[in-house]
Write a structure and sequence with these properties.
Blueprint (H helix, E strand, L loop, with lengths): L2 H5 L10 E2 L10 H17 L4 H19 L6 E4 L2 H10 L8 E5 L4 H9 L6 E5 L4 H4 L4 E7 L14 H6 L4 E5 L11 H4 L3 E5 L11 E4 L2 H4 L42 H17 L1 H21 L11 E4 L6 H10 L2 E2 L1 E3 L2 E5 L6 H15 L1
Parallel strand pairs: 1-10, 3-4, 3-5, 5-6, 6-7
Antiparallel strand pairs: 2-8, 7-8, 9-12, 11-12
Helix pairs in contact: 2-10, 3-10
């Protein structure tokens, strides 16, 4: 791959910034912002008269997203963020007093907060390390909430077949793929969650507000929408004579969308997702893991304790240096990383290169003294 040519498509990387923080925000390629501009220009050209055709374009985006995660287009619903998708799932599960919601340690607050708030419905939040999760499950466990990669440690749990094993025990699985989809390959038919949700503003390189949920037929058979709107009737495209009365819900996952879609964001998502597909998910995963391996080596040479996880998120703890102070020192050099719960977090995407890593290495050494 001509990674230099690909990197040239990202304007923010041409400004002197060394950006190693995609776990916080991904950078937008030129084609993505151009897609938004084209959409707004087209609105003016036709005064939005052809708006039904925009839904056809959105369906092509569903197909591109589905191909990326090895699902079917009809299983894809657009969502503004993963919290919204999770709220839909939780709203459809009946909890009895004493039911348990399991969350692995070091989970993203979305999942912890949602599980904790279920206490109002009688459910109990339980947290435990991943290696103890199987033994911690009980006959009262109703739901497991988890991410594909931990935002604080970079741990990547082995999820192959996990959803099927939980389903055999009557337990639902919600997977948040925001910290991996777009960087690491994911096959939803292998994991088999009750629902997968992804906010695309990190590794999918989309604007914030552009996200999707994968909701398979088995889940759609019992999960009711929490948002009802004019597109909740199966024949919503017949705008000349919209149905009045109780809606007959569509069979596809679009029934969870309810009303009008944020088309500017969807056109942006389409451009980014298709860039990833053109490069190739397997090439992207190999590249980000290669860069992560080099970053771990740099950090260890600088004296850090670095977990050896098979993911693109690298975290490090220094025995005599504060992670927040290090992050601030790097900020002054326009080298952008994060600090999370006492660790320095460095996250390179395919648009990064060895020069970025070398600049980070030199500046880190200077900050450490």
């Amino acid at each position: 791959m001509d990674w230099a040519a690909i990197r040239a498509q990202f304007p923010a990387l041409q400004t002197g910034i060394t950006f190693l923080d995609t776990a916080s925000f991904g950078q937008l390629p030129e084609r993505t912002t151009a897609a938004v501009s084209r959409h707004f220009a087209h609105r003016d050209e036709d005064a939005c008269h052809d708006f039904l055709g925009w839904f056809d374009d959105a369906d092509r985006t569903r197909a591109a997203i589905a191909a990326l995660v090895h699902g079917a287009p009809g299983d894809i619903a657009f969502v503004p963020n993963t919290a919204t998708a999770l709220a839909t799932l939780i709203g459809g599960i009946e909890f009895a007093p004493g039911d348990e919601v399991m969350v692995p340690a070091n989970e993203f607050p979305n999942n912890v907060y949602a599980a904790a708030m279920l206490g109002r419905r009688g459910a109990v939040l339980r947290e435990c390390p991943w290696d103890q999760l199987d033994s911690a499950l009980s006959e009262r466990t109703r739901l497991v909430l988890m991410s594909t990669v931990s935002y604080t440690t970079g741990f990547r749990p082995p999820l192959s077949g996990f959803g099927a094993r939980l389903r055999d025990r009557g337990i639902h699985l919600f997977v948040d793929g925001t910290q991996s989809v777009g960087a690491l390959e994911l096959d939803v038919t292998d994991v088999q969650p009750t629902m997968l949700a992804v906010h695309g503003y990190k590794w999918l390189l989309c604007p914030n507000g552009a996200g999707f949920a994968w909701i398979p037929p088995e889940t759609r058979a019992w999960l009711e929408p929490t948002v009802i709107g004019w597109r909740s009737h199966r024949n919503w495209r017949n705008v000349d004579n919209l149905h009045h009365g109780q809606p007959e819900l569509p069979a596809a996952a679009e029934k969870y969308e309810g009303g009008m879609l944020p088309f500017a964001l969807i056109y942006a998502m389409d451009a980014s997702v298709n860039l990833l597909r053109e490069i190739g998910p397997s090439r992207i995963e190999a590249r980000v893991l290669e860069l992560a391996s080099e970053l771990r080596a740099i950090l260890r040479r600088r004296g850090a304790a670095v977990p050896e996880y098979d993911s693109q998120i690298v975290t490090a703890r220094f025995p005599n240096a504060d992670a927040v102070a290090l992050r601030r020192a790097l900020d002054e050099q326009r080298i952008y990383v994060s600090a999370r719960h006492g660790s320095l977090r460095v996250s390179a995407h395919f648009y990064n290169n060895e020069a970025d890593l070398a600049r980070f290495d030199g500046a880190l050494g200077h900050a450490l003294g």
